[in-house]
Amino acid sequence: MTARTPRLSRLRRLTPGRGEEGAGRSGRRRGATPKVVALGGGQGLSASLAALRRITGDLTAVVTVADDGGSSGRLREELGVLPPGDLRKALAALCGDDDWGQTWARVIQHRFQSEGDLHGHAVGNLLIVALWEQLGDPVQALDLVGRLLGAQGRVLPMSAVPLELQALVRGHDPARPEDVDTVRGQATVALTPGEVLSVQVVPSAPPAVPEAVAAVLDADWVVLGPGSWFSSVIPHLLVPELLAALVETKARRVLSLNLAPQPGETEGFSPQRHLEVLARHAPKLALDVVLADEAAVPDRESLADAAKRFGAAVELAPVARQDGSPKHDPELLAAAYDRIFRMHGRIGPWR
Predict the structure, then answer these.
(1) Torsions phi, psi for 180 (to 5 deg)
(2) Helices 85-93 and 99-109: crossing angle, nearest 10°?
(3) Residue 324 to residue 217: CA distance in whole angstroms
(4) pTM for the full model?
(5) How many CB atoms lie within 10 A of CB 341?
């Protein structure tokens, strides 16, 4: 430890803790709401967290660590750290709606604009990496940032090592539409032309963060998605210990589908096609509910058939913003999750 450690210890005492100011802002009694774990990355996970924090005081986010673009990619390459960007976005989504929470959400999302090396870096990325270097423990550092923000939940990386995403893509080169190439890097996979056939991570069989595995095993509900399908959702299934926990947990599992196909990796995908590729990557995974926006499902029967292969029921609900953009409305998504938890869940202490 460095000479700054006593200051960090003092900061822990002064900043609100989860279960005190963090979960306590909602006024919910500990144990009175379901334990929910949400898995994903980027904007999709942020949308899910912004909804879930409205209905539960016991929320954990498990976040992908394969990002290699932008500020995260630069910090990862220079310092060899986990990419902090998706972790930062999850923390911002968990900030409360009061002045404290919204001020800190804006601060950590702020990006510097300059002609120098700081250009494009997010304040939250630098804060997270600084605490990683100070504490030498990514989980402890993220917990400390969460207390500082008054985050209404906990944020964990899915793996303890930074990962590289690789995809097999047919037609990545338009001049060779039938050829299959290996595309490397999350940022490249997310925007690749052609048809993504499968993804894998390097190193293969990476270690899971033990706290993430424990959270999944201890949950009442696990939420997977929405988000970039091949670069944010499926990577969780490529961490063996995390996949085993998802298969073995007694929690109910809900898969939240995207509002529209994404340019590049899921261009032209139907809702049921998303389920088919998920099954190819995790054939032993069972689901209880598949949630989709009712306006985004043109063929309800085909989606129901695809869901049945996972043992899941389909719940359709209006969860999109009313402005026509392909983004989830946090209040509508919260209402959909709350209804699912009450209709499909076991009787629990939150009932």
Answers:
(1) -110, 125
(2) 160
(3) 37
(4) 0.87
(5) 24
Task: Classify residue 98 by burial, with Cβ atoms within 10 Å: 0-12, 13-18, 19+.
Answer: exposed
Q: Coil, helix or strand for 320?
A: strand
Instruction: Quote the DSSP letter at residue 231.
Output: I
Work out the number of other CB atoms within 10 angstroms of the CB of residue 137: 13
**Binning pLDDT at 50, 70 and 90, where does residue 346 land?**
low
Closest CA to 337 of 118, 36, 61: 36
Residue 300's CB is within 10 A of a number of other CB atoms, namely 14
Nearest Cα residue to 202 out of 186, 191, 188, 190:
186
CB-CB neighbours of 125 under 10 Å: 24
Distance CA 83, CA 157 (A): 10
At what angle are helices 271-281 and 300-308 packed, to 10 degrees?
20
pLDDT at 168: 93
Cβ neighbors of 175 (< 8 A, separation 6 or more) are none
* Cα–Cα distances in angstroms (integers) from residue 257 to residues 76, 125, 294, 325, in the given order: 30, 28, 11, 15
